[in-house]
Amino acid sequence: MKRKFAMAILLAAVACLMTARGNAQTKGVDTEGHAWWQHAVFYEIYPRSFADSNNDGVGDLKGITAKLDYLKELGVNAIWITPCFPSPQVDFGYDVSDYEAIDPMYGTMEDFDRLVAEGKKRDIRVILDFVVNHTSDQHKWFIDSKSSKTSAHRDWYIWRDGKRPGQPPNNWLSTFGTAAWTFDAKTGQYYYHYFYPQQPDLNWRNPAVEKAMLDVTRFWYKRGVAGFRLDAVDTLYEDPNLTDNPVLPGTDKFGRPNMDEIHNKKLPEVHDAMKKLRTVADEYGSVLIGETWTSNVDQLKDYYGAKNDELQMPMDLMMTGFKGLSADEYRKHIAAVNAAGHWPVYVITNHDIVRSNTRYADGVHNDDIAKMMAALYLTLRGSAIMYYGEEIGMENNDPKSKDDVQDPIGKLGWPLEKGRDGERTPMQWNHETNAGFSVAKPWLPVPASAITHNVASEMKDPDSVLSFYRKLLGLRHTEAALLEGDYVSTNEDNPNVLTYLRRYKGEAVLVILNMSAVEQKVPFELSAAGLREPKLEVLLTSFHKQVKGAFAVMPMEPYSVFIAKITK
Ligand code: GLC
């Protein structure tokens, strides 16, 4: 039965607890059976845009190494670097021409080794991005594959005859706006590519491909890599009979018919490949994160494997698709993810998705919304993957005209599809030239908002988004209930405010998030969670006005955060 309480709010506790910061990274498994990655905060770095040490306008590995202290201070435990391997950069690194080297644009293998070593000194692990579905068309495997129908690597890719002269083998489409089949005049066949024509799909049904790819992971594990983010795993396998996909009503951003991609995505064989990759990862104590685009929790659940023998960390990307800030929608989703019984992995944005700070900004409460979203994904039970710049409230800086676009899909799909440049702009380090990213013109423009939203300025401002992130991550690393606790949803009838407890042994942390633009008075209903007359110690709020006194209801400012420890 639910009951309302008067709460004694001990505001004196705020100041000292808000400075608490720490790092709970552990080596083995803790008393709850949790491995390091379950407590870790991951931080995605788009290397082109993070820090440019040689001032050529593009970021590099030395630049990342130079910022490790910043990341350590922030509370980051692992960095995931998007592909830094040799590449013609058609898809900015997601077209790999050599899996076992570093692109000179980003530095050398020595720079990489130093990054890993310096990371280790700071307890920051390095995760690489493994593009498993396809290579670059400049990879030696594909160059050989294309050379003749009888070449050693011909069957490493998907080659087929056209249906009839001049017609591709079936109706599948590339997600990047072109056809999925490209004709090769020399050998008279088509090759398949789910992404750009310069990204031919590997044939994972060929055991030689599987072996070569597993060996790539060994190569990097031996160099000290703590795991991989596996790129585009949904698309690893295709129906060998090339059955046409059903055509759906309507058209996509490129003006092509919508398709139900049942024959070239999420085939059951994907799970066999995940298991094999996992077996190798386990030999090295490494972690596998998946780019798992799922439309429901059941699909997400499948990626952990029936025997927990696939991905330890399939990303829950579903929240990135929420159109607005609805407490109900989040509550239902989080409940379903927790009920699925696995360790959740929350992501609110990345290098392919409009930044969360832009998606939900209302022009009035932008920083408050950024803090509220931070409190959401960083206090839930599970691992969290941040995206660089989120912690300073960076917003998208979309191209203003087609001529400014770098991302090929933006050129092809303009104006409906503007591409992904907007969420990949240089990290804003200070308010000087090019936001301190580089003295040369950066490969993508820095927005005017860098004047206010940058690391140096926000460090000095106790109310900045960055200061909020630092305090929040500090709590996440030090409060046992946030690290280990279960998730208990409360105040479930409230459509505007998300309220939950994280409970561990005798402790609990209460999180209240006002997801609306108006003040909300939140009654506490914690008796269902076994808490009758709880006393609260405030850990962190994003309130602009100080709250004093004891409340029967909590006055929550628009888009505000209230986090308190229940001391009973
Ligand atoms: C993934 C990457 C994206 C890339 C695509 C093709 O979705 O996140 O950036 O373009 O795969 O590799």
Care to give the gist of this entry?
The chain has helices at residues 13-18, 36-39, 61-66, 68-74, 109-121, 140-147, 207-222, 269-283, 297-302, 327-339, 356-359, 366-379, 408-413, 455-460, 465-478, 480-484; strands at residues 7-10, 41-45, 78-81, 125-131, 159-160, 181-184, 189-192, 227-231, 247-251, 257-259, 287-290, 313-314, 345-347, 383-387, 486-490, 497-504, 507-514, 520-523, 535-541, 550-551, 553-556, 561-566.
Q: What's the shape?
A: globular
Percent strand: 15-25%
Helix content: 25-40%
Most strands sheet: 8 strands, parallel
Model regions low in confidence, pLDDT < 50 over at least 5 residues: 1-26
Bound molecules: alpha-D-glucopyranose
What integer value in Å does the Rg equal? 24 Å
Q: What order do the strands of the largest sheet run in, or round the barrel if closed?
A: 12-11-8-4-3-2-14-13
Query: How many individual helices?
Result: 16
Straight-line distance between termini: 19 Å
SS-derived structural category: alpha/beta
Overall pLDDT score: 93
Number of strands: 22
Structural account:
The protein is 25% helix and 18% strand. Strand 3 (78-81), helix 5 and strand 4 (125-131) form a beta-alpha-beta unit. The chain has helices at 13-18, 36-39, 61-66, 68-74, 109-121, 140-147, 207-222, 269-283, 297-302, 327-339, 356-359, 366-379, 408-413, 455-460, 465-478, 480-484; strands spanning 7-10, 41-45, 78-81, 125-131, 159-160, 181-184, 189-192, 227-231, 247-251, 257-259, 287-290, 313-314, 345-347, 383-387, 486-490, 497-504, 507-514, 520-523, 535-541, 550-551, 553-556, 561-566. The chain is globular. The protein has 16 helices and 22 strands. The strands form five sheets. It has an eight-stranded parallel β-sheet with strand order 12-11-8-4-3-2-14-13. With 568 residues, the chain is of the alpha/beta class. 51% of the residues are buried. Bound molecules: alpha-D-glucopyranose (GLC). Alpha-D-glucopyranose binds at residues 91, 94, 131, 195, 231-232, 291, 351-352. Alpha-D-glucopyranose is lined by residues 91, 94, 131, 195, 231-232, 291, 351-352.
